[in-house]
Design a protein that fits this description.
Helix content: under 10%
Low-confidence stretches: none
Strand content: 35-45%
Number of strands: 6
Mean pLDDT: 91
Largest sheet: 6 strands, antiparallel
Distance between the termini: 17 Å
Structural class: mainly beta
Order of helices and strands: EEEEEEH
CATH architecture: Roll
Radius of gyration: 12 Å
CATH superfamily: Ribonuclease P/MRP, subunit p29
């Protein structure tokens, strides 16, 4: 089950999210549902179509169990299947 402590080791597809910080200022404020994940990008379905957002240098905010959590995209940069197996010491 996904929760705040183990979100990095779980699947992100299906979560609603908002881009709260990005090196590319045009990406800030994009919100929608995560529909796909690759090694370096998240695909977010918005009202205007699917947007691909780089993970590195981006922060995403999502709602888990009624609590807002901000995820640093730098921790997400890896293949999803490898990230799920990886242990992250400090989160």
């Amino acid at each position: 089950m996904r929760n705040i402590k183990n979100i990095l080791q779980h699947e992100l597809i299906g979560l609603d999210c908002v881009v709260v910080y990005s090196k590319n200022k045009d990406n800030i404020g994009i919100k929608g549902k995560i529909v796909d994940e690759t090694m370096k990008t998240l695909s977010i379905e918005t009202g205007k179509g699917v947007k691909k957002i780089l993970k590195q240098g981006t922060e995403f905010k999502t709602d888990l169990d009624g609590k807002k959590v901000t995820i640093d995209g730098n921790y997400l940069v890896s293949r999803p299947e490898d990230r799920i197996k990886k242990k992250i010491k400090k989160w």
